[in-house]
Amino acid sequence: MQGVQVLYVTENFNGDYTDDLLRPVKQWQARQESKDLSKVTIRGLLSKADTGFWLGGTPPYGYDLLYQGFDNEFLHILRFIADGTKQVLDKDHNLVRTLDRGQRLSISKKDHATLIYGSDNRVKIAKRIFKMYAEIGKGFKAIAYTLNNEGIESSRGPKWAHIYSGKWSASTIRSIIVNPIYAGDMVWNRRTDARFYRISNGQAVDREQVHGHRLVPNEKTDWIIVRDAHPAIISRRIFQLARDRLDNNISSLEQRGVN
């Protein structure tokens, strides 16, 4: 009972019928606090978007993260492994330590991360994916089948999360093909994952359907692009060939739908 009484005091509840009146107010206050925090976070990210720095999350397949201090002194290299662990590497890419799944390094707000080449093998696979699509003419499913048939590990396995099989899929291949990051450009705000806001015209605006899908694509006009922000894995020519083929395929499908 003592624990219950403490809860009532902490939440300003009285333990009687008035709680039914207070509870919706408390829920509304909590929601507003979450919205305010979300907007502050987005503003912070927007202030860094044009720097070309990595703004968080798992880097694309084929890349590692180079962490530096505010005066650009080397801190460490972080490599994400398919089992969900992360490797901390030194300047010479020697293993310093391994972080367990879910474990994070403590870094300062003044530190920043940029994309650098990952392992030689992953870089070669990323280049090969673009070559198979843009030059050889294989489709997404065919590329995934080829990699799986050769026993090449994808970026995320079942130990990362139960939703991953460790196998390549057509959707994984497509996500690589359409990503301008592989041509050396940092692109931010391609998709919205925030609950309350999305970014349009360089500022946070209310999402129309808060209770819809969290992760939705944004219009290209709202993408924030920093050219030549990091080393490119493929040339702009190859990326454009892949882009042109994808656009042609989409156009063909749309024409079939009309006819």
Key traits:
single chain, about 260 residues, alpha+beta, five-stranded antiparallel sheet, two-stranded antiparallel sheet, 6 helices, 11 strands, globular, disordered N terminus
- Report the major sheet: 5 strands, antiparallel
Poorly predicted tracts of residues: 1-10
The number of distinct helices, counting runs of at least 4 residues, comes to 6
- Assembly state here? single chain
Structural class: alpha+beta
Strand order of the largest sheet: 4-3-2-1-5
Task: Give the proportion of residues in helices.
Answer: 25-40%
Mean pLDDT: 81
Shape type:
globular
Q: How much strand content do the residues show?
A: 15-25%
Q: What's the N-to-C terminus distance? A: 71 Å
Structure description:
The chain is an alpha+beta fold and 259 residues long. The chain contains 6 helices and 11 strands. The protein has helices at residues 2-10, 19-48, 120-136, 140-149, 170-177, 236-258; strands at residues 63-68, 74-80, 86-89, 95-99, 112-117, 186-188, 191-192, 197-200, 203-206, 216-217, 224-226. The strands form 4 sheets. A 5-stranded antiparallel sheet has the order 4-3-2-1-5. Strand 1 and strand 2 (74-80) form a beta hairpin. It is globular. The model is unreliable at 1-10 (pLDDT under 50).
Topology diagram in text:
Elements: H1 2-10, H2 19-48, E1 63-68, E2 74-80, E3 86-89, E4 95-99, E5 112-117, H3 120-136, H4 140-149, H5 170-177, E6 186-188, E7 191-192, E8 197-200, E9 203-206, E10 216-217, E11 224-226, H6 236-258
Antiparallel strand pairs: 1-2, 1-5, 2-3, 3-4, 6-11, 7-10, 8-9
Helix pairs in contact: 3-6, 4-5
